[in-house]
Amino acid sequence: MSASPLVGLGVSSISDSWTAFAQNEKAVEEYSARVRRGELPTLRGHVLDDEDLVLRRHILNLMTRFATDWRAPDLYVPHLDTVHEQLAEMSRDGLVKLSPGGCAVTEAGRPFLRNICMAFDARLARKDAGAKLFSRTI
């Protein structure tokens, strides 16, 4: 699976080439200064590894179809026990329905979709509680 590149224009925007992300400077002054100097205003970036690409597909499935299936060999989730543990709690709250091969977001869970997707983010699970993230939910 691949997608057309998305070029983020402006302060703090995020570009996406499917296999990598790049975020522009967050401060207007620094962004403008770098553009005036003829530089790319990129602040940071991340190249996705194979695991990232699989998890990205699950997250996109949830965001666009409100369901994902992890039974297919190309959608193997290496840390499925951790994901399932987090989703089980959300299932008890009525936000998702779990099955042996996947999960579906309930109507009640849709306002919490970003939180549900965060269960698949292995890096987020490994981060310290005080670590900076690209964005936060409520």
Features of this protein?
138 residues; alpha+beta; Arc Repressor Mutant, subunit A; 2 domains; three-stranded antiparallel β-sheet; 18% strand; elongated
What's this entry about, in short?
The chain has 138 residues and is α+β, with helices and mostly antiparallel strands. It has five helices and six strands.
The domain tally reads: 2
Number of strands: 6
The percent range for strand residues is: 15-25%
The name CATH uses for the topology of the largest domain is Arc Repressor Mutant, subunit A
The Rg value, from CA coordinates, equals 17 Å
The strands making up the biggest β-sheet line up spatially as 1-2-3
What is the 3D shape?
A: elongated
Distance between the termini: 31 Å
Would you mind describing this structure in some detail?
It is a single chain. The chain has 138 residues and is of the alpha+beta class. It folds into 2 domains: 14-47, no CATH class; 50-126, Orthogonal Bundle (Arc Repressor Mutant, subunit A), CATH 1.10.10.920. Helices cover 36% and strands 18% of the residues. The chain contains 5 helices and 6 strands. The chain has helices at 28-36, 50-65, 80-92, 113-118, 122-126, and strands spanning 14-16, 20-24, 42-47, 67-69, 96-99, 102-105. The strands form 2 sheets. Strands 1-2-3 form a 3-stranded antiparallel beta sheet, with no helix packed on it. β5 (96-99) and β6 (102-105) form a beta hairpin. The longest helix has 16 residues, at 50-65. The radius of gyration is 17 Å and the shape is elongated.
Helix and strand topology:
Layout: E1 14-16, E2 20-24, H1 28-36, E3 42-47, H2 50-65, E4 67-69, H3 80-92, E5 96-99, E6 102-105, H4 113-118, H5 122-126
Antiparallel strand pairs: 1-2, 2-3, 4-6, 5-6
